[in-house]
Each structure stands twice: as structure tokens, then as C-alpha cells.
Amino acid sequence: MALVAVVIPTYNESENIGGILNALSSLAGSAGLNIHVLVVDDNSVDGTVEIVEDFGRRTGFVSILRRPGKLGLGSAYVDGFRWCLRNLGDFAVAVEMDADGSHDPAQLPRLVEPILKGEVDVVIGSRYVKGGAWRGGRLSRRIISRGANLLVRLTVGLRVRDATSGYRAISKKVLEQAFSGERSYETGYIFQVETLYQYYLLGARILEVPISFYERAGGKSKLGPGELVSFAAWCFRQLAGRISGRVI
Ligand SMILES: Nc1nc2c(ncn2[C@@H]2O[C@H](COP(=O)(O)OP(=O)(O)OP(=O)(O)O)[C@@H](O)[C@H]2O)c(=O)[nH]1
Ligand SMILES: [Mg+2]
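That is the input. Now the predicted structure with magnesium ion docked in place:
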């Protein structure tokens, strides 16, 4: 049975992470998937690490990569993917998932199946294709998300509806091409767009499947104004590069 590596970055997610690990563990049984979870934690001080380590000891299907401080979402994924490539040699697909309850583990099989069948290389769990939904939460977050996607469309030119979604699956082949070399990536939230663009440039076949996205269940958001500014700055740099004929 093909191994699915689920990489979950955490920073103070003790209110949410236990429930997600439980759901993934029952999913592994019910959906017949062979799952290994890697939590990449940035020195959480709220008990997240203890919950994950305890789960790992009891079940053996969870590993934790501990980093010394908050180094950014993008860099957590880069370290996490490189850890998987080094330590989980035989996995077929890696999945990105937030630890705050926004991404429903029950929807994971729909993300990985098209890759396991060899139909595509990257699957985005999309809020903005037919059948996708955003459940609950604040209007301001929806507006930020829509605005970010519009900006990506206008500047980078990626024809994807939900380029900022953090619920996605990537084939091992594409991960190897993108991450086994020395190429560096942005450390913040723009990482999601930057990597998608990189997968596109590598010739990956990209599919969007509808997901229901649930606003953060508990705990605090890590998305601050600094992230939004660096997100927009990166987009405009791409636009400037495209106008002057330079490819990133
Ligand atoms: N390891 C690590 N994880 C992070 C970092 N920043 C955010 N995360 C995690 O990345 C995921 C997404 O962060 P969120 O705060 O939910 O960001 P968001 O989904 O844009 O915002 P809200 O859901 O509105 O709070 C969560 O699991 C966070 O704990 C970081 O610097 N390091
Ligand atoms: Mg979130």
C-alpha cells in the first residue's frame, strides 16, 4: 500500500493538533491509506510538542521535527519535505495540512487519489472551484484570501483558482525535483504560491479538487500584517520580472 506523508506545521496549536492526529489515525484505518505524519514545530510553548510526542509514542505513525523558534510557514515545509525525502524513502505522495482545524482530514483521500492513480502530479484542495466552500468565520479573512488570489492571477499569471490553499498533495517525483537541490524558497506564506509556480515551471500536471474549508477551530492566527506585505511584495517582484522578460 502506497505511503502518504502528511506534513503539518505547528506553532502553538495545542487546542487543535490532538483532534487532527486522532482523525488522521482513524482515516488511515477506514480509507485504507498508509499514512505517516510529520509535525514541524517551531518551539511551541503551549504543550503542542508534548501532545505530538505522546501520540507518536503510542501509535508510531507520527514523527516530530523540532526547530528552535518561529522560522516561518514556508521554511517549516521545506525542512519537512527534506526530512521526508531523507527519512521516508518509499512514500508516494506528500500532503500539506494546517494544524488549526481548517483542513478536514476526511477530505484527504480525494487529494491523494488522482496522484496515486498517476493522473496528475499536484492536487490543490480548492475553495474556489465548483463545489468548494468556505465555512464559518470572518468576512475579513475571506476578502484577504480572495484579494490574494486575484493579486496572484494578475501578477504571476498562474491560472489556478486557489493558489494560496494550504491543503494540497504533491507527488514524490515533483517534491524531489523541487526540494532535493539547493534552491531556496521564501520563508513565509507566499511559499504556497512560489512553490505552485515552481511546480508549474517543472511541468507538473496540476488539478484543483473542491474542499470545504473551515475557519480556525481554536487558538490564535499567525497571519499578521507583515506576512501580507511580504506576500504582495513578492507578487509585484514577479510582475516586474515578467515585464522585463526575466523568469524567477
Ligand atoms: N512551524 C511553523 N508553523 C507555522 C508558522 N506559522 C504558521 N504556522 C502553522 O501553519 C498553519 C497555518 O497558520 P494559520 O495561523 O492557521 O494561518 P492562516 O490559516 O492563514 O490564518 P487563520 O486560520 O485565520 O488563523 C497552522 O498550522 C500554524 O500553526 C511558523 O512560523 N512555523
Ligand atoms: Mg488557518
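The chain has one domain: 3-243.
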